[in-house]
Amino acid sequence: MGEGEGGEFPPKKVQPDTADFPFKKRVTQLDFTAGFGGVSSGVVVLPEHPQSTQGMVASLSSAAAAAVTQQQHQQQQQQKQIKPPMVSTATVAYAQPPPINTASPRVVKPESPKAKPRPNELKDATPKKQKQCNCKHSRCLKLYCECFASGIYCDGCNCVNCYNNVENEAARRDAVEATLERNPNAFRPKIASSPHGARDSRKEAGEVLMLGKHNKGCHCKKSGCLKKYCECFQADILCSENCKCMDCKNFEGSEERQALFHGDHANNMAYIQQAANAAITGGIGSSGYASDPVSKKRRCQELFFGLTAKDPSVHRLGHFPQENHIRGSAPSSFLSSMPVSHAGTTAGVGPSKFTYRSLLADIIQNQDLKELCSVLVVLSGEAAKTLADQRSLTQKRAEDQTATSLASSTQDRLQSQKDSDAEKTMADDCLSANQANKAGPEDSSSDGADMAEGRPMSPGTLALMCDEQDAMFMATASPNGIMDHDCSTSSHLPYGKGMTEIYAEQERIVLTKFRDCLNRLITFGEIKETQCSSLARTEIGSQRGPLSNGTEVVRTETGN
DNA sequence: GAGTTTGAAACT
DNA sequence: CAGTTTCAAACTC
After folding, report:
1. CA A2 to C1' B11, whole Å
2. Which residues touch strand B (CB under 7 A)?
3. Model pLDDT for residues A3-37, shown as the tens digit of each residue
4. Total Cβ atoms within 10 A of residue A21
């Protein structure tokens, strides 16, 4: 379909006010000669203000501006390869310092990130020639044309049927107006200095965090925002909440992104592209190169505990816009590689459309939590009983009767207390260790038997009680000293004091147990990460088969 | 350098 | 506003 390719030029449905008004006056605010060999640096720096921008564009259409450009055009001829700035927005350098060539003032194409040095290009001190467009069908009068979009005349370009020049100023003016009518911000800089840009001035590994964000945001789907197709990447800024990109890897903390600019390879464009490809295809990332055990460990901890405060570099999880970016990267690189039930989280687009999902999401089941509660309850009861039993053993037979009653009453009390706590926590029926009945009495494994004294426990419970032997050891061996101490004291102290110590010991055991379980989960997360990453590597491009259920992984592991 | 891919812009 | 087409730059071979 033609975009007016053939016939008449951009529709002249120009709004009167757009055509003239507010803009002309602003013309005087600008040094339009700057870019033409004027005295200035050649860069007109404007405050980032929409109106200013529009004003400049509109000013272009003014007769006065045309007259000026006519003059300037002759100077252009003397400055081959240097695009004369038009009096349009794009001529303006917004906050982004252009590669200034004092010898010959250069025109900056603020909207064209191409004009901006990429990190990998920074070392290339070679003065860059102004980019030349190659338009064939747009007459260089649409935003497709970088020159036009940047508000400069084509000069020395390879374009065909170019109207973006002084000779066709009228047509160009109309095009500008038409473009503005379509989008009043068309000539505004796409990259705005970001309020959150100051959020973090530190540098990531080999990467300078760029400030600013894309006003409209990118909509990349396949590039992972790690190629210059992506306007954000091209502008050397991070994707923001404005972006609606998919599988974004251009966010703060993205390992894929960091990998692009890592170390000695930062200047190697080939490497960067290769790394980008690898990142996009999932070959790298959290589990790919550029990852280290420490970071993986930390990430795992972040995932499970949501730890972000301790490590100043862990902002990304809580980092604003990156919900939709997390999805695709560091965390997401392996998350997304997880075949199980992530479709819903990766399909969405737009800010806030993404819900962060822990790697352990498939590992931790509600049932497991319930059972963990039950385990802790049982453990607490057993601890109390063990303590009581040991106490009784150290006491005289004459005290047996007393000790027994004490233990039983204590146990009852503690049991009920713990049950109550469990109820509060889980708000369901997990309190009762009897719920384990569902698993049947089959489990009299040494684990379960020792611990629960024949209490039927589900496999999941047993799995979660993976450390029960340790716990038992602590409850029986380690506490021995305590028990001895406790016995000695309790025998001398009032009833309440002994109970307090039992409580403390119980709490210690339960918390220890809980801690161990958490540590295990961390381990499982790492295991799963490894599995997923290897799976992703081996199955990229192929149909992903169902991955072993994370829960099974847990239980298998815990069973050992 | 030709062909392909990509995503913004333009259009329906 | 969503879907489609056009376009030119970026990228691959």
Report:
1. 9
2. A 1, 3-4, 142-144, 149, 179, 182-183, 186, 190, 216, 218-223, 225, 227, 229-231
3. 333 333 333 333 333 333 333 333 322 232 333 33
4. 12
